[in-house]
Fold this protein.
Amino acid sequence: MMLRLPRTQNRRSAAIAMAATALVGALALTSCGGASSAADGGKGGKGSGKLDVVASFYPMEHLAEQIGGDHVHVTDLTAAGVEPHDLELTAKQVGTVQKADVVLYLKGLQPTVDQAVAQAGTKYKVDATAASPLVDHHLDEGEVETGQDAQAHDGHSHGQGDPHIWLDPTRYAAVAKSVGSELAKADPSHAADYQKNTDELVGKLGTLDKEFQAGLKDAKTKTFVTSHAAFGYLADRYGLEQIAINGVDPESEPTPARLAEIQKAAKQNGVTTIFFETLVSPKLAETVAKDLNLKTAVLDPLEGIKDPGKADYFSVMRQNLANLKAALGAPAS
């Protein structure tokens, strides 16, 4: 029978409670005046005349910056290097959402953001899940949990499906198109620029998709092991299977039975590497790799960028591809 570790809802409940408190304070602070909108001739972006765009976390921030260009001022609610599930909005951040011209978020990923957006009633907003609906997979009895099947992460339930849609470039492109369309609605005078930037970004994502297809098609094994289930869409897109050590909480310890399942699957599929991610401690992956006599490497879920000045979505995704190719025995380019 498939093992599922117990979920802890305390953090989520606390986050929602804090968001409610912050909302009350922010509403009191902002009730005396409406949001400044570049579309209405106001000065968004802190008086710069730019469209004021709020993004909930890095993948949405990246789209805003790439598509908005010089016409937008982007605020990311999740600081660089912070795991987005840990976000608890301050009253100031809720006020920022209240005053935004455009809000970009992924519903269900960050409950405090969902609540702030609902209370703000922002006219122009993009929910990434509307552009690329989430997939919810179910395990068969006795299967090892794979990335496609995971429905929770870091103690937060994602009953509507896996939220990591940006790890499939084609799904991310669909979200990009929605962002471009919404920016054009909010700021019609620059609609042509938003369309041009969207087309360029979608083209880059198409190239990345082809690189992944070509790079992984002749891999010796199609199975990889990762510390938690974040790569289901990537696996689905490129014909891979992801085995997650722990789909519920990437920092908790797997049971001996769980390790035995993973070891069996690793041997059967020629797995050489246990992947860990950048924003969570590698201790779990290192421990499992040592127990199974395997190597470790990074597979970045791109929920955030530790050093935005040195990396971006495309550079990290290409590094992910290189690491996957090495682990799966794919031919060098």
In short: Residues 1-44, 137-159 have pLDDT under 50 and may be disordered. Residues 191-216 form the longest helix (26 residues). The beta strands are 51-55, 72-76, 102-105, 124-127, 152-153, 156-157, 223-226, 241-244, 273-276, 295-298.
